[in-house]
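Renewal narrative, Specific Aim 1. Our central claim is that a sequence can be written position by position from structural information alone. The example that follows is taken directly from our test logs and has not been curated for this report. It begins with the structure tokens describing the chain, in the order in which they were read.
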């Protein structure tokens, strides 16, 4: 019998590769009685589909790359959030 932790791992793996027959069987049996894992599987499938659709859409208003200035601002805010000292000047 599979645990919920094992099932979440198998659900994720099943999206990238075909599982062995005994893994698929165990997964299906677990999903029959575990509402939480069914919800998790549905949410993961939804997120994967949404991310795939977003990746396929080309929106000119959304830059493909961040500017160096934006990257610097993100780094500074992350350092501030974790109280990391800034790197030495070059």
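The sequence written for that structure reads:
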């Amino acid at each position: 019998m599979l645990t919920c932790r094992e099932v979440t791992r198998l659900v994720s793996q099943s999206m990238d590769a075909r599982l062995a027959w005994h893994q698929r069987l165990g997964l299906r049996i677990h999903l029959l009685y575990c509402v939480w894992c069914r919800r998790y599987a549905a949410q993961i499938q939804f997120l994967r589909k949404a991310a795939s659709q977003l990746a396929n859409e080309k929106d000119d208003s959304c830059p493909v790359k961040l500017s160096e200035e934006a990257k610097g601002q993100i780094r500074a805010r992350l350092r501030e959030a974790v109280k990391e000292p800034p790197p030495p000047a070059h």
